[in-house]
Specification:
This protein is mostly helical and 689 residues long. The chain is built from 34 helices and four strands.
Length: 689
C-alpha cells in the first residue's frame, strides 16, 4: 500500500531522528520560499508545525508564503501564532502589518509597526510602511512626523521625500511639495516617480510645458507606465497639441488596454478631429466597463447622430434624460435626432419641454429663487445658451464630476487617487530580492517554464530533444532560465514520482537515467541535497551523461545563492534561527571550484552545448572574473549568434570592464532578441554619459 507521499518523502530523504527531520525540512521549505515556490513551501512548513508546534519559525515563514499568495487573513493568523511563541521577531510584526494593510486594517498595521520599532528603531521599511498607513488614514500630521523621523535616520532616502511631498500636496502646500520632489530628483535622478510627481503638481499649476518635460523624463525612465502617457497627454492637450495628446493615449492603451481614462479621453479627441467611428469604439469600451456612465452615453449619442445612426442617438439621449431630466441640451439634441427619423410629434414634445424649462427658470428668477443656495442639484444646470461658456471655463473635469454640462471635458483622476505609484507600494517582503541591474540568470533543465510577455527564442539541443523523444522522462525537458514554480498538483505528482523511482532503483541501482530523473524530482521539490546525491550517482553510473553534471552545477549555485541571501535576511529581520548551523554545514560542502569542474565536464563531453559556456560565464561574473566571463559569453555567441541572454550578460560585462561602446552594442542586440530590460539599462547608461 502506498504511503502518504509527503511522509514517505521526509522519511526517505532524512534521518529518522525527529530533530534532524524538522531542521532538514525547514531548510528545504525555505529553499522553496526563496525561489518563490510558495505552495510547495507551505506543504513543508505544515509538516514542521505538525511535528513541533511550539516553534515560531514555521508559522512565520508560512505566513510569508501566504502573503505572497494573497492569503492575507491566513498570513495574519500565522504571524500572530509566531509572535505568541516569540514576541521579539521584528519580521513577524512586519509581515502581519502587510497582511493587515491588505485587509484595510491600517490601525492594526500601525500597532504592529510601532511594536516592531521598539526592537528595531532604525528600520527604514517599518517607518516607510507606517507613514503610508497614516497617509491612507488621511492622518497627515502623523505621516509628516513619521517621515521626518525617517529622514533623520536616512537623509538620502528619496522615497521619503516623495511621500512627504505627496502629503504636502494633500494639504494644499504646493511650494513644499515641489521642494520635496526637487530634492528627491536630486538624490535619485533615475527614479521616474520624482519627475512624475512634480509633473502632476505643474499640471495643477497650469505650467503645462514644464509638466510635459517632467513626464518626458519619467517616460524615458519608465516607458511601460500607462499613467505617465495619460498625464503627458493632458499637458499636451492644454498646449493645443492634439496630435501629440492622441499619440500618448494610443501608447497608454497599447500598454494598458483597459485604461478607463485613456479610452474616454481618446474618444473625445477623436470626436474633435472628426474620427467619429473610432471615437464611438472608445465610448463603447467605456460603457462596457461602466454601463451607467452618462457622460460617455451622451457623447456616444452625439457621435451616433453625426454618423447617421439616429435611432442609436435617440436611445443614448433618452437614457441620459431618464437619469437627468433637467439636462436641457439633451432635449435639444434628441429633438434634432427625432426630426431626422420623421418623428415630428416626439421632436415637438422635446421642444415644448425646453420651452417650459425656460419659462420655469424665468419665473424662479423673478420670484427670487434663483439665488437660493439650497436648490436641488438637478436644477443647477446651465441653459443651452450658456453651456458653451461654462464648458470653456475649464478644459478638464474630475472623474467623479457628474455635471452633465461638462460632457465635452477631458477626464482627470480625482484628488483621492494616488499621485504616485508608491502610495500603494508597501514594503515588507523579508526575502527581499536585489532589484539592481543584474545578469540574466543561469539556464536549467526543467519540465516547467514561465511564459514571457515577449516571445523569446526556443532553446534547443539535439541530445535533450532526443531524450524527450525517447519518452523515458515523465515530461519533456525545457532548456530555460525562466523556471516556473510548482502548483500544488505538480508538487504531489513529483512526490509520487520520487516514491515510484525509489522502488525502481531498488532493482536498477546503477541506472544513470533513472538516477537523473529522480534527481530532477528532488530538485523540483527543492530538496537540493538529495538532488545532488542522485546527480552524483548518475555520473558514477555513466560519466558521459552530461545533463547530470549540468544540473549538479546549477543546484550547487542555487545553494550558494540561497544560503547567502537567507543569512543576510536573518540578520536584517531579527530572526535568530537555529537553522543557521545547518546552513553553514551545507555551505561548507559547496565550492565554486567544484561547480566549475562540473561545467568544464559538460563542455568536454558536449562542446556544442552553449548553455554550459553561458552558465560558466555567470559563475565567473559572480566571482568578479569578468574577462573569463566575457570569453565564455563570446564562445556561446559563436555557437549561437541568436542567444539574446548571452548578448545581455556580455553587454553588462563589457560595461563592468569599461568597454562602453561594445557594451551598448550588445545590450541593443539583446533588446532586439527579446530581452526587454536591455532598453531600460540603455536609457540609464546613455543618459549618464
Amino acid at each position: 500500500m502506498r504511503k502518504s507521499l509527503i511522509v514517505f518523502f521526509i522519511a526517505f530523504s532524512f534521518s529518522l531522528h525527529a530533530q534532524i527531520n524538522t531542521e532538514r525540512v525547514m531548510i528545504i521549505a525555505r529553499n522553496a520560499l526563496y525561489f518563490e515556490d510558495y505552495v510547495l513551501s507551505i506543504q513543508y512548513f505544515n509538516q514542521v508545525i505538525n511535528a513541533k508546534p511550539y516553534l515560531y519559525e514555521p508559522y512565520f515563514f508560512r505566513g510569508l508564503a501566504k502573503v505572497n499568495l494573497d492569503d492575507y487573513q491566513g498570513a495574519e493568523s500565522d504571524c500572530t501564532e509566531a509572535l505568541n511563541r516569540n514576541p521579539f521577531v521584528v519580521g513577524a510584526y512586519q509581515i502581519r502589518g502587510i497582511a493587515r494593510i491588505r485587509q484595510n486594517n491600517f490601525d492594526g498595521a500601525i500597532e504592529d509597526y510601532r511594536s516592531a520599532l521598539k526592537y528595531d528603531p532604525e528600520n527604514l521599511t517599518l517607518w516607510h510602511n507606517m507613514s503610508l498607513c497614516h497617509i491612507n488614514k488621511e492622518d497627515y500630521e502623523s505621516a509628516l512626523n513619521d517621515l521626518n523621523r525617517l529622514l533623520e535616520i536616512s537623509p538620502r532616502y528619496s522615497k521619503a521625500y516623495l511621500m512627504r511631498g505627496d502629503v504636502h500636496l494633500k494639504q494644499k502646500d504646493t511650494i513644499s511639495a515641489i521642494s520635496d520632489f526637487d530634492y528627491a530628483i536630486k538624490l535619485d535622478k533615475y527614479d521616474s516617480e520624482g519627475y512624475s510627481s512634480r509633473g502632476i503638481v505643474r499640471l495643477q499649476q497650469s505650467k503645462y510645458a514644464d509638466a510635459e518635460k517632467d513626464f518626458d523624463q519619467a517616460i524615458h525612465l519608465s516607458a511601460r507606465n500607462a499613467n505617465l502617457y495619460i498625464n503627458r497627454a493632458l499637458a499636451r492637450y492644454h498646449q493645443k497639441n492634439l496630435r501629440g495628446a492622441m499619440s500618448d493615449y494610443d501608447l497608454a492603451l497599447d500598454i494598458d488596454p483597459h485604461n478607463f481614462l485613456g479610452h474616454y479621453n481618446r474618444g473625445l479627441l477623436r470626436s474633435q478631429v472628426g474620427d467619429d467611428n473610432r471615437a464611438i469604439e472608445d465610448f463603447d469600451y467605456v460603457l462596457q466597463v461602466e454601463p451607467d456612465n452618462m457622460m460617455a452615453t451622451f457623447n456616444r449619442g452625439v457621435l451616433r447622430f453625426q454618423t447617421g445612426n439616429y435611432k442609436g442617438a435617440i436611445e443614448d439621449y433618452s437614457k441620459v434624460l431618464d437619469e437627468y431630466p433637467n439636462f436641457e441640451i439633451g432635449y435639444k439634441y434628441r429633438s434634432d435626432a427625432r426630426k431626422k427619423i420623421g418623428d415630428k410629434k416626439g421632436a415637438e414634445q422635446d421642444i415644448n419641454t425646453l420651452t417650459r424649462m425656460e419659462l420655469d427658470r424665468l419665473n424662479r428668477r423673478h420670484s427670487g429663487l434663483a439665488n437660493n443656495k439650497k436648490v436641488d442639484e438637478e436644477e443647477q444646470t446651465d441653459s443651452i445658451d450658456s453651456t458653451s461658456a461654462a464648458a470653456s471655463a475649464e478644459k478638464t473635469r474630475k472623474k467623479s464630476d457628474k455635471n452633465m454640462n461638462n460632457y465635452r471635458k477631458l477626464v482627470i483622476a480625482d484628488d483621492s487617487d494616488p499621485t504616485t505609484s508608491y502610495s500603494n507600494s508597501f514594503r515588507g517582503r523579508v526575502q527581499n530580492k536585489n532589484v539592481a541591474i543584474k545578469l540574466e540568470p543561469m539556464f536549467a533543465l526543467n519540465y516547467y517554464e514561465r511564459l514571457s510577455e515577449v516571445k523569446r527564442m526556443v532553446h534547443y539541443h539535439k541530445f535533450i530533444d532526443d531524450l524527450n523523444y525517447s519518452k523515458k522522462l515523465p515530461r519533456p525537458l525545457h532548456i530555460t532560465n525562466m523556471e516556473a514554480p510548482l502548483t500544488e498538483n505538480q508538487a504531489k505528482f513529483h512526490f509520487a514520482l520520487i516514491d515510484t523511482h525509489s522502488a525502481n532503483l531498488e532493482e536498477k541501482n546503477d541506472n544513470a537515467l533513472l538516477r537523473f530523473v529522480r534527481g530532477m524530482d528532488f530538485y523540483l521539490v527543492q530538496d537540493f541535497s538529495s538532488a545532488i546525491d542522485d546527480f552524483t550517482k548518475a555520473i558514477l553510473a555513466d560519466e558521459s551523461f552530461y545533463p547530470a553534471y549540468f544540473m549538479r552545477a546549477l543546484v550547487r549555485c542555487k545553494q550558494l545563492e540561497y544560503i547567502k541571501a537567507e543569512a543576510s535576511v536573518i540578520n536584517d529581520s531579527g530572526i535568530s534561527s537555529s537553522l543557521m548551523e545547518g546552513k553553514k554545514t551545507e555551505q561548507a560542502s559547496v565550492d565554486y571550484e567544484i561547480i566549475r569542474a562540473d561545467l568544464d565536464a559538460v563542455i568536454k563531453i558536449a562542446p556544442d552545448f552553449v548553455y554550459a559556456y553561458y552558465n560558466r560565464g555567470n559563475l565567473f561574473a559572480s566571482l568578479n572574473d569578468y574577462r573569463s566571463a566575457l570569453a565564455d559569453y563570446s564562445r556561446a555567441l559563436e555557437l549561437n549568434p541568436s542567444f539574446g541572454e548571452a548578448y545581455y550578460n556580455r553587454g553588462l560585462t563589457q560595461i563592468y570592464l569599461g568597454n562602453n561602446k561594445q557594451g551598448v552594442s550588445d545590450l541593443s542586440k539583446a533588446g532586439e532578441l527579446g530581452i526587454v530590460s536591455s532598453y531600460n539599462i540603455l536609457k540609464r547608461f546613455t543618459d549618464s554619459r
